[in-house]
UniProtKB/TrEMBL annotation:
Residues of the active site: 144 (proton donor/acceptor), 169 (schiff-base intermediate with substrate)
EC top class named in words: lyase
GO MF: 4-hydroxy-tetrahydrodipicolinate synthase activity
InterPro entries: Aldolase_TIM (IPR013785), DapA-like (IPR002220)
Keyword Lyase: yes
Name recorded for this polypeptide: 4-hydroxy-tetrahydrodipicolinate synthase
Entry keyword set: Lyase
Family label: Belongs to the DapA family.
Amino acid sequence: MSSVAFETQRAALADVVAIPVTPFAEDGSVAQDTYRALLRRLLDGGITTLTPNGNTGEFYALAPEERRLVTELTMDEAGDRAAVLVGVGHDVPTAVATARHARELGAQMVMVHQPVHPYVSQAGWVDYHRAIAEAVPELGVVPYVRNPQLTGARLAELADACPNVIGVKYAVPDAARFAAFARDAGLERFVWVAGLAEPYAPSYFSAGATGFTSGLVNVAPAVSLNMIEALRSGDYPAAMKVWEQIRRFEELRAESGSANNVTVVKEALASLGLCRREVRPPSKPLPQSERAEVAAIAAGWSI
């Protein structure tokens, strides 16, 4: 399939790439109606790219059948209103089966989670992604890169073998390394998505990113859209005004090695009455003493 065939997918990545939370019911199961309502809120708020089964969706805490359910619910709610980028990962057969399931449902793309195996060689990284990409040649494939050891040349090698590798969610917290990686891989060849969300979006956009992922968008879609509009127009002072607005929220999420990354988002949603605050281990709900600050921030965004 030629790269031209992936133009709509590429455009969808050059945007706010929302990572929906997965809300849980009182009995601990996936709260399906609540999840649908959260998706509709994103769609009604102007979001047009959704990533079910991302890290903000607690991908690694969901059972296989729950991951399938989340994908099915997302595809059903999105309809033709949004492009869907389904998170896949774990062992190769599981990732391939998940990607094929996404394809059957009509998803346009898959995001391949960073391999969590403690021993990852660069050549093995290529092999892992190639096995998944070759299994679904019709889908756009987006590797999620968190490994600072990986070189841009390896990504280029992967894309030479698999032309459906069209974008990268780059999440190494180093803007200079990102700039070099993107140029070594091919700046124009891929859509570069700032994978560390709004706090890193301005610096990564200055180096060539055209989209960013967001968990905050679950709480305040307009805030995320304000930032991307500023970045698209090259208005960095305006983007940094939004950055200042979201700084404390994102600092709370990033504390202690991002221990409360999902927790803070769900706490904000709970304060707005949109879902329960429960998260699954290894995450933990916020202690009572820290809830008021998150609620005040969410209320201050006047959603």
